[in-house]
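Example 3.2
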Amino acid sequence: MARKVAVHDPALGPLTDDWLTRDVRVFQRAKGHRFSSDDVATAYVAHGTRPGARRVLDLGTGLGSVLLLLGWKLPHAELCGVEAQAMSFELLTRNVARSGFAERIRVRHGDLRDRELLASFGGGFELITGTPPYFPPDAALDAEDEQRAFARIEYRGGVEAYIEAAAPLLAPGAALVLCGDARVAARVDAAGRSAGLAIAARTDVVARAGQPALFSIWTLDHSSLRCTTGTLTLRGPGGDTTPDAAKLREFSGFEPARDPP
C-alpha cells in the first residue's frame, strides 16, 4: 500500500506525517530511512534499564525516533542527540521542534566520532543509546538512497565507534544501550572490554516465532559480572501478534493491535 504523503518538500522529497507515540508525530521521507521496530524496541529496553534517567544522549539520532520516544517517556530528562547525515538532521530538527518538549532537547549536526563535538554536551549521562548501521561498507549499492545508505551501512563506523564514543560520557552507574545485527555479539563484547564496559544484558528481537533473531539490543555498563538474556518476539508462528508486540505498542501509548478474526 502506498504511503500517504503529507508534504512535498523541495529538498527532502515526499514526506509522510506519522505517529511515533500517542502524542508525538514525526516527518519521514516516504522513500527514505524510516523508523521501525528496532527503534521502538531500543527505546523500550533503554527505558526499562534506566527508567529514572535525567540525562540522556542518543548517538546517530537519525530523524529522532529513539530520542523522542525517550523524551516522551522521561518527562524530567534532558536529552541530547548527534546526527551526521544532512537529510536526517533536517528531519530531526523539524521533529524536535514539533515534539512538545523541544526545550529539553539539544541536537548537533556532526559525526559521533568527533570528541570535541560530543564534549560540547558535557558528560555524566545516565543513559546513552544508539542504533549503529548493520552492514559493512562493501554491502553498499550504488543506486541506494543516500539517507537510507548511511543508516544501514558502516560508513562512519559500526558498534565499535558507538561504544568508543559513549564510554567516556557515561556517569557512574549509567548504561549504554545499543541495537544492532544479532551476529555481531563478539564485536560488541570486544569493543566493550576495550572501553572498560561489560555486557550486562542482551535482548534478541525475533520477527516471527521460530526464526533467527532479527537484531539484538545490548546493555553495557561499568560493573556487570554476568549477562542476562531475553527475547522479544513480534509475531507468532502463524503471523499473529504477540504479548511482546502488545508491550511495544503500549510503551508508545497505543492500544494493542488486533488480528482479524
